[in-house]
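Appendix B, record 7
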Amino acid sequence: MAYVSAGRAADAARGVPVGAGGTGGSPESPGAGGRTGRAGRLVAANVIALGAVSMITDVSSEMVTAVLPLYLVAGLGLSPLAFGFLDGLYGGVTALVRLLGGHAADRWRRRKLVAGIGYGLSAITKPALLVAGTVPVIGAVLAADRTGKGLRTAPRDALISLSSPAGEQGRAFGVHRAMDTAGALLGPLVAFGILALAAQGYDAVFMVSTCVAAFGVLVLVLFVRDRRERDETPPDGGGTEPPAGETDRPSLRVTLQALRLPGFARICVCAPLLGVATLSDSFVYLLLQRRVDLPAHFFPLLPVGTAAAFLLLAVPLGLVSDRIGRLRVFLAGHAGLLVVYGLLLSPLGGAVLVTVALALHGAFYAATDGVLMALAGPLLPENVRAGALAVLQTGQATARLACSVGFGAAWTWWGPRNALLLAATALVLAAAAAAPMRPETRNP
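Structure tokens (predicted):
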């Protein structure tokens, strides 16, 4: 409730009467996306609806993600290098389709439709995991699932950005990521419960995941509003004039012209630079499991710690980013990740190591995931916002793919400790290079 009070205080400071529609515009404003009840005073109703879809979908996806690393490494006996390749594929294949999804959403002006196709594709691939018993087949299924994620991410984030005032993007993305993370918190718990009831019950996990994913698509169809009424400069003067030659249905060339905007261009360098040194969740959890010798049936609970911290901190850090600067919060999140690396290298062990590392891991996501989109969104014209955000996300996903493959190779050749030392060194150098870039400077 503290963040609701903060929103009311901000309204009062701007002379907006409390109870008169909240922050970010009137209930009739297209930019507000409609407001309902207590949650409507915090963010647009469209953000809440998108958050609900993400929450349900994350319950489904995180059920699979929670059991997958142990299933592949302990169950199928993959080496760290082979797992690094599959893990990089799982996270990085989205880079191949993010541009397609973002550009199609802008070109067709059907952001909800493109996002829905992505959610639907991920839902229909889940049953294939029931019969995927070999590494190549599992890789193909994971690639199809991540293709769905790649298609939906940029249109979804563009809808959130377009439904929120420029000065409150951190708040809107914080609320969405908190709801999204509630699903990430529940998914591993559901998987843990299923495995506790049925030993080696991976088939049951995959089947329940399929049903939950289908429900998420239904919620999207019924409750999310598209933004197709008009193309306008973002509120509060935070955006830019469209690039020369831009039309209502921009070409890919026009979308890529966003890279000429100095502020956005700096973000597109900063995020991938840090992404090259960002270990995937799976490697963090495998390192923790090895350090404390965690029993296999407790492994799905490790993501719960990350998700709990993310859930608690997403909205507060989103609000903080709106006040003190989104770049500062983004870099602070990576400093927290560096501490996680240090803890994994330290002599600490047991519950203390697990608790502190997972809390900081969740804080890292709270300070970076939605904050990056909030940093970039207001700098972009509405017509190309989904496509331009996809450019940014593609660069970051590609960098993290390289990190997963590189870390898996370093672990195989030099051992986990030396590989982690290399990752920590790379993160320090990347943060030092990114800090002076000042991407929050507004484009002319």
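Remarks on this record: The domain at 42-225+252-437 is CATH 1.20.1250.20 (Growth Hormone; Chain: A;). The longest helix spans residues 45-75.
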